[in-house]
Amino acid sequence: MGRLQPAPDNRLFVFYYVSGSDAAGKGVSENRIMELLSDGTAGQAVKVPLKDPLTSYFTATVRGGSPPSKAIELLGTRAGRPGTLSYARVRLW
Fold first, then answer.
1. Do 51 and 63 meet the contact criterion of CB atoms below 8 Å apart?
2. Are 46 and 34 spatial neighbours (Cβ–Cβ below 8 Å)?
3. Is the dihedral of CA 31, 63, 44, 70 positive or negative?
4. Distance between CA atoms of 23 and 83, rounded to whole angstroms?
5. Single pTM value for the model
6. Which of 1, 30, 39, 76 pairs as cysteine with 54 (C-beta 3.0–4.6 A)?
7. Interatomic CA distance for residues 43 and 21, integer angstroms
8. Which residues of the chain, if any, have pLDDT below 70?
9. DSSP strand E in 7-91: where?
10. Hey, CA dihedral for 78, 57, 88, 26, is it positive or negative?
11. What end-to-end distance do the CA atoms of the chain give, in Å?
């Protein structure tokens, strides 16, 4: 599941959760952020260094009345901690 975050300078980012195995068979469970560029291509994905990644989450969105921001505010559940709500604020730059 990914969530879009518009920035004040009209850039657009997506925050998402990745799980599974990498090419070496090692388990992966992490959040990433990627910029969606104005030409329609995707920028470089960057791992978000949360202690426990958020697997399901809500964001403060423009559609919900929040202004575009240089930060993504998240409320959701973390991997390995079902039934616990957690908050994270991630600065884009």
1. no
2. yes
3. negative
4. 31
5. 0.90
6. 76
7. 22
8. none
9. 12-21, 27-36, 46-48, 54-59, 71-78, 81-91
10. positive
11. 22
